[in-house]
């Protein structure tokens, strides 16, 4: 400490000596230098620091090339394989107009209020800048930004920053000077008026004019112009819709500025400022009404790609060339809409009454107007209703606010609009559909739900559901890979299959067991659970899982349990259609492709995503044998509706699928040039199709695929003469010639030696709710026990 103290005293002595020398020097100078030199130092040093600071920031502000690119910003678009626009990446609601298409009143009001020396400065109004600093120091903060500075913020919000500090202000000034050096005053005004935000996701004066006054930018009068310019000081605070009084006051300030700078005379000003606010508000429709699940999926991928490759999808005008075929997409959307609506009617009617009845789609449609959809379902499942309610955000919010469970349930069950929304959501039948080219992996059609604007959850790539019997071809494919012949015999009998944990699994079929010997081929054709289980036992689960992964089921987890053979491990529709495409491509897997290339606004290719290299998943001969086995599903098995309902006589093969309690219906069909699959069900798997007939994939999902293929053939998109190797075109089948119903049963996951799942613990709230507060429109008496659904009502064709 002694040495430190000595050092400090020495340093202080040196500093004091220097100060004395400076003082002596100044005292020896004439009076004007004595006061002028310190003043120059006080001004010069900060200016020098500021200059260095500016030089440091200069490389970190946008350059002239950036300015030109941003001014010419253009939204990227997605186009189909045949060149039709599918969607765009616009930054909010914006429509660019030229300066000549903007009212002179708007331009005058803007310059008078925001930057009255706009025509005289070069990006920075020095006088206004120093005035704003002085006012701010005196406690009256004022803005000093010129129109060019504001444009810099609008054009480069991320590069310049949003924090209110000197660093941001300097970046803003530097960029404004660059803007002034690159563009004329009119070009700056035009860019500014096309990019300024006006709330409600609208950008630019044209969309603002439409939103607030139901007119165009060219037709804005002086009052409307003054109102919009007044919003620029604070769009929300001076919003003429939500804050009309503030908006009028601010509008009049703009008018006074116009008078001050000679744009209005006193008489006109006095007249205008007394006028009422005239707003004709109409929120503009979003620009993506044509968005689909496919475009939403590609958007997400493209944004990630653009970030990695330093592109801006909202400004760089990229053209993203997708694989989607617009005609096939239209056919898919119509098939989902038409068949989804018909199946919804069936579900509505069957769950409307204690006796589910039976009949054709046409018969159910005739009954639909006289029933209350799902009335019996809701009357007979009171505890399930309570479970649905407890899972809603409204119930959770009520509990968080301090309500007890009973109080929350009682209030929500009595809330008619809430219950109506809940019922509609739970009982809305959904479907997913996807089609791809097996030779390239290109996605040709993609429908994620019956209506994207009502249901954004994508049943193609997001929803993982049990595939049921559509998984069986993978089991038989693994058997072929192991050397089994398609005609290898098995006895049609219930077999005890011991799982790895010692439990016993005894799969059965709806049609019963005959005890006869059945070939492996017919086991697949007629979807026999008893045969499939034995094949699985002989092949082994590891071989089945390996083949499933090789064919395309690469994301979903496959449980290594015996019931996997009957499709009990959830997978996505895209994975299943990809797997079938690998089979159709003679055993070669191709990763699904949805974008082929990206070009810039001049047409130059900036990225290509060529056909992926195929991976051999199974031998071509075994794939051909498996296809031949699956032809039988269409010709004489559970998929015959393709022939007799839709009259499709091409060389096709496929498989239906149904899961426990008719929860999921599947159908996937292969053609040499196109593979398509559909899933049908409800989002909540506690709601199912009621009858075993309409609950089967061979009677629901098959309708979507058949409808699509029929339309695609009619459009010339599918060549009915194309054949698989060793294939032949089938004999024509008279449409509507029903060969008889073949039932299909899901794989029961229950195993002997394992207790069935315990029902949930009863909640005291359930009893209080069911007995004391029946839902609106319900009887308070206990519901009748559910009747047994009819197993196989007479099949009747859909009207095409």
Properties at a glance:
single chain, 800 residues, alpha+beta, 5-stranded mixed β-sheet, 5-stranded antiparallel β-sheet, elongated, peptidoglycan synthesis, PCN-bd_Tpept, cell membrane
Plain-language structure description:
By secondary structure, the protein is α+β, with helices and mostly antiparallel strands. 44% of the residues lie in helices and 9% in strands. The protein is built from 30 helices and 18 strands. The strands form 6 sheets. The protein has a 5-stranded mixed beta sheet with strand order 2-1-5-13-14, with no helix packed on it. A 5-stranded antiparallel beta sheet has the order 7-6-18-17-16, with helices on both faces. Strand 9 and strand 10 form a beta hairpin. Helix 22 packs across helix 25 (541-551). The relative contact order is 0.09.
Topology, please?
Elements: H1 2-27, H2 31-57, H3 64-71, E1 77-79, E2 85-88, E3 93-94, H4 104-114, H5 126-137, H6 147-155, H7 157-160, H8 166-182, H9 185-195, E4 202-203, H10 205-213, H11 222-231, H12 244-260, H13 266-272, H14 293-308, E5 319-322, H15 326-350, H16 361-367, H17 375-380, H18 382-390, H19 393-400, H20 405-413, H21 416-426, E6 429-436, E7 443-447, H22 472-481, E8 489-491, E9 497-498, E10 504-505, E11 517-519, H23 520-525, H24 529-539, H25 541-551, H26 573-584, E12 588-589, E13 595-599, E14 605-608, E15 615-616, H27 620-636, H28 641-644, E16 653-658, E17 664-671, E18 674-682, H29 701-714, H30 764-772
């Amino acid at each position: 400490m002694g040495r430190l103290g000595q050092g400090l005293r020495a340093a202080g002595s040196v500093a004091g000596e220097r100060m004395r020398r400076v003082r002596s020097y100044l005292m020896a100078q004439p009076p004007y230098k004595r006061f002028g030199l310190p003043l120059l130092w006080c001004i010069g040093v900060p200016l020098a620091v500021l200059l260095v600071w500016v030089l440091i920031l200069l490389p970190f502000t946008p350059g002239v090339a950036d300015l030109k690119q941003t001014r010419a910003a253009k939204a990227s678009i997605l186009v189909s394989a045949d060149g039709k626009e599918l969607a765009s990446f616009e930054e909010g609601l914006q429509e660019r107009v030229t300066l000549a298409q903007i009212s002179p009143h708007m331009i005058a009001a803007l310059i008078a209020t925001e930057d009255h020396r706009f025509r005289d400065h070069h990006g920075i109004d020095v006088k206004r800048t120093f005035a704003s600093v002085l006012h701010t120091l005196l406690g009256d903060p004022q803005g000093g930004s010129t129109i060019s500075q504001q444009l810099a913020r609008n054009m480069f919000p991320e590069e310049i920053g949003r924090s209110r500090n000197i660093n941001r202000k300097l970046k803003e000034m530097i960029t404004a000077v660059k803007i002034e050096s690159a563009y004329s005053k009119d070009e700056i005004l035009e860019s500014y008026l096309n990019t300024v935000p006006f709330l409600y996701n609208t950008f630019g004066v044209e969309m603002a004019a439409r939103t607030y006054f139901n007119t165009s930018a060219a037709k804005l009068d002086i009052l409307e112009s003054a109102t919009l310019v007044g919003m620029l000081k604070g769009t929300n605070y001076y919003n003429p819709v939500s804050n009309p009084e503030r908006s009028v006051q601010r509008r009049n300030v703009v008018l006074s500025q116009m008078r001050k700078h000679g744009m209005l005379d006193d008489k006109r000003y006095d007249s205008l400022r007394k006028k009422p606010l005239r707003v004709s508000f109409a929120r503009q429709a979003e620009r993506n009404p044509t968005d689909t699940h496919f475009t939403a999926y590609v958007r997400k991928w493209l944004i990630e790609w653009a970030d990695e490759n330093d592109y801006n999808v909202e400004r760089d005008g990229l053209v993203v060339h997708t694989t989607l075929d617009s005609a096939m997409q239209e056919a898919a959307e119509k098939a989902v809409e038409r068949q989804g609506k018909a199946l919804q009617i069936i579900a509505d009617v069957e769950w409307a009454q204690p006796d589910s009845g039976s009949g054709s789609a046409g018969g159910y449609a005739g009954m639909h107007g006289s029933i209350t959809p799902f009335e019996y379902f809701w009357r007979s499942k009171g505890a399930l209703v309570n479970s649905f309610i407890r899972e809603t955000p409204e119930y959770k919010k009520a509990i968080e606010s301090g309500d007890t469970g009973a109080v929350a349930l009682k209030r929500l069950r009595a809330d008619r609009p809430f219950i109506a929304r809940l019922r509609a959501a739970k009982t809305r039948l959904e479907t997913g559909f996807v089609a791809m080219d097996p030779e390239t992996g290109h996605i040709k059609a993609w429908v994620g739900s019956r209506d994207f604007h009502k249901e954004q959850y994508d049943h193609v790539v997001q929803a993982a559901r049990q595939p049921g019997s559509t998984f069986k071809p993978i089991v038989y494919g693994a058997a072929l890979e192991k050397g089994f012949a398609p005609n290898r015999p098995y006895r049609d009998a219930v077999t005890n299959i011991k799982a790895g944990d010692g439990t016993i699994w005894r799969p059965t079929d709806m049609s019963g067991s005959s005890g006869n010997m059945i070939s492996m081929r017919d086991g697949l054709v007629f979807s026999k659970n008893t045969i499939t289980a034995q094949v699985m036992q002989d092949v082994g689960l590891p071989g089945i899982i390996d083949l499933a992964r090789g064919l395309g089921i690469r994301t979903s987890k496959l449980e290594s349990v015996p019931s996997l053979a009957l499709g009990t491990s959830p997978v996505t529709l895209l994975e299943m259609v990809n797997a079938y495409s690998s089979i159709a491509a003679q055993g070669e897997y191709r990763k699904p492709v949805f974008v082929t290339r990206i070009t810039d606004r001049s047409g130059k290719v900036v990225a290509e995503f060529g056909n992926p290299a195929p991976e051999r998943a199974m031998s071509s001969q075994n794939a051909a044998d498996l296809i031949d086995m699956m032809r039988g599903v269409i010709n004489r098995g559970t998929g015959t509706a393709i022939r007799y309902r839709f009259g499709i006589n091409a060389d096709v093969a496929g498989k239906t699928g149904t899961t426990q309690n008719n929860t999921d219906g599947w159908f996937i069909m292969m053609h040499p040039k196109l593979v398509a699959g559909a899933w049908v069900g409800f989002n909540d798997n506690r709601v199912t199709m009621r009858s075993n007939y309409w609950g089967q994939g061979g009677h629901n999902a098959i309708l979507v695929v058949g409808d699509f293929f029929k339309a695609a053939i009619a459009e010339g998109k599918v060549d009915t003469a194309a054949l698989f190797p060793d294939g032949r075109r089938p004999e024509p089948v008279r449409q509507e010639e029903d060969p008889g119903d073949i039932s299909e049963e899901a794989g029961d996951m229950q195993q002997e030696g394992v207790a069935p799942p315990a029902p949930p613990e009863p909640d005291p709230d359930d009893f209080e709710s069911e007995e004391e507060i029946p839902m609106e429109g319900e009887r308070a008496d206990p519901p009748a026990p559910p009747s047994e659904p009819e197993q196989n009502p007479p099949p009747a064709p859909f009207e095409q």
